[in-house]
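Worked example 3 (structure in, sequence out).
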């Protein structure tokens, strides 16, 4: 029985070894490593296959206790899946993965994250079901981060540096130990926020200003502000409650500000009470209900009736009442005294200061009218000191003659008749017409040559590779697959590795497209194409330089001589349209 079990285990190990080798071979050819669910404790050692250009690595559901060091050598890695392992720490050497945009470290045993990991161009970071106590403050450097999942950890707070992640759209922090949300979190344009199953008692009122927020989950929290009854109704009701709370808090702050402002200005008001008139004092009392600004406005605005009395009263001096705060009686300085009693108000006859009389006012008006009449050509002065001949009548200046200068750089004889339309000579018009015709012909010839080059490029590819291309040629070439096969047609194995689409993933990633294009351009250089005639990678990837690509292909085909034996190039059927 023991021999049979031993034989069975050896047979399984042999099958496992052969299958692993097949997976490594496939990863070497297509750039995608699939080792998920293999219960691996160590990364398989291989010197036969070069996996450095791997773009996708799936190492999920294994038994890794540490971050695989071999993965650090995958310099073009874009997606790494280490879900459901037993990894306890992340090395600082992870910074060498400068193409990594998707990292899944869920269901591991991480207690902290290295700050070096925040230097990666990550777009999706999944850290759920770990033992993280805090996030590094350097996480604010992940400017490209779009989705962050830190659910099911033991986080006590979220760093305020999250407010620097301008690209973040989705944040999942449910099932932690959070007590509050940082105010900086409201600065970014989140679309989804999940903070359920925490210990949050209040939400910041600034949360209502997150206009881009579409999904908000705050369930299973001991919320008081807003209350649970409001939170159950959803995001819109939460925002309305926070808005009303903000308005209420603003009123309370405004009332306290008015009280403190009046209290702080109490001394200055009391010190200026002696200079207030009776009407101004009454205005101040009524304006106390309107706030400090209203009282200051009344302090600087004298009574209208009192001003009119001062202006037109010619028989008596103005009577200004002053208020004293010492004994409740109304009094002035030593010049005039008012006393309030049952017998009325007594006023002495000594004036305080000089006021303009009505006669002086009329004299001033006469002088002003006399000065105004000077500009009208006549004098109305009671003293008759002005002479009519000394006043010059106003004469409107004549409009200057405007000479047409339509031609600035040509010395042309100007006609005396300004309205003559024949400014341009006939021969100059003919020259302009000839230049326009020449420019149009040159542009037409250039466009025709470019169209012929593009047509020649299409015919060459379809005839050499035995395939049909779509009507739009640029999108069919921007992934570099067809061009790499064309280079191998000219010189076999000039491009050793070609990333091709599959039925599951019909469209290549940008990194793989760039890899194919770089391989094609490098093959052109090795074959012998002049560097000046080789197009740029942007011309192929963006599809805007199709003419330059046609020139490069035309030069490349010059090296495909008749002596070269015809090679059968297999093009995947997925590329045929």
């Amino acid at each position: 029985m023991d021999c049979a079990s031993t034989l069975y285990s050896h047979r399984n190990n042999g099958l496992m070894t052969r299958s692993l080798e097949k997976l490594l071979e496939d990863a070497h050819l297509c750039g995608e490593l699939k080792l998920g669910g293999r219960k691996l404790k160590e990364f398989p050692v291989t010197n036969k296959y070069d996996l450095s250009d791997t773009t996708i690595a799936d190492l999920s559901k294994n038994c890794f206790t540490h971050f695989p060091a071999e993965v650090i050598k995958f310099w073009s890695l874009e997606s790494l899946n280490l879900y459901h392992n037993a990894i306890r720490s992340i090395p600082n050497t992870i910074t060498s993965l400068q193409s990594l945009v998707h990292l899944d470290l869920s269901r591991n045993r991480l207690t902290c994250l290295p700050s070096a990991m925040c230097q990666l161009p990550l777009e999706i970071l999944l850290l759920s079901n770990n033992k993280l106590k805090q996030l590094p403050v350097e996480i604010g450097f992940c400017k490209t981060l779009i989705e962050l999942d830190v659910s099911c950890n033991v986080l006590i707070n979220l760093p305020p540096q999250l407010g620097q992640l301008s690209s973040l759209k989705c944040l999942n922090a449910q099932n932690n130990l959070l007590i509050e949300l940082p105010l900086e979190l409201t600065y970014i344009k989140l679309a989804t926020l999940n903070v359920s199953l925490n210990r949050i008692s209040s939400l910041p009122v600034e949360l209502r200003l997150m206009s881009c927020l579409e999904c908000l989950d705050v369930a299973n929290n001991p919320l008081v502000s807003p209350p649970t009854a409001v939170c159950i109704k959803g995001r819109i009701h939460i925002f309305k409650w926070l808005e009303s709370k903000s308005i209420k808090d603003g009123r309370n702050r405004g009332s306290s500000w008015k009280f403190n402002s009046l209290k702080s200005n109490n001394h200055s008001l009391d010190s200026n009470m002696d200079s207030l008139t009776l009407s101004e004092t009454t205005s101040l009392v009524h304006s106390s209900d309107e706030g400090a600004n209203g009282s200051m406005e009344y302090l600087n605005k004298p009574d209208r009736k009192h001003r009119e009395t001062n202006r037109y009263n010619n028989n008596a001096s103005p009577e200004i009442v002053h208020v004293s705060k010492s004994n409740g009686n109304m009094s002035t300085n030593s010049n005039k005294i008012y006393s309030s009693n049952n017998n009325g108000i007594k006023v002495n006859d000594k004036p305080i200061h000089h006021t303009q009389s009505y006669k002086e006012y009329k004299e001033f008006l006469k002088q002003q009218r006399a000065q105004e009449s000077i500009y009208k050509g006549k004098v109305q002065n009671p003293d008759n000191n002005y002479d009519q001949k000394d006043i010059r009548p106003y004469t409107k200046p004549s409009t200057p003659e405007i000479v047409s200068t339509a031609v600035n750089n040509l010395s042309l004889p100007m006609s005396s008749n300004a309205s003559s339309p024949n400014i341009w000579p006939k021969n100059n018009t003919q020259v302009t017409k000839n230049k326009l015709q020449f420019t149009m012909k040159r542009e037409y010839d250039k466009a025709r040559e470019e169209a012929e080059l593009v047509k020649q490029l299409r015919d060459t590819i379809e005839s050499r590779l035995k395939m049909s291309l779509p009507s739009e040629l640029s999108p069919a070439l921007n992934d570099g697959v067809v061009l790499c096969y064309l280079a191998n047609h000219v010189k076999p194995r000039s491009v050793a590795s070609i990333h091709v689409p599959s039925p599951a993933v019909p469209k290549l990633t940008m990194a793989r497209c760039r890899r194919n294009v770089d391989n094609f351009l490098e093959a052109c250089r090795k074959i012998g194409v002049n560097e000046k005639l080789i197009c740029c990678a942007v011309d192929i990837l963006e599809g805007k330089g199709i003419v330059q690509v046609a020139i490069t292909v035309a030069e490349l085909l010059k090296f495909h001589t008749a002596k070269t034996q015809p090679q059968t190039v297999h093009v995947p059927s997925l590329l045929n349209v």
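Notes: The mean pLDDT is 74. The longest strand covers residues 32-34.
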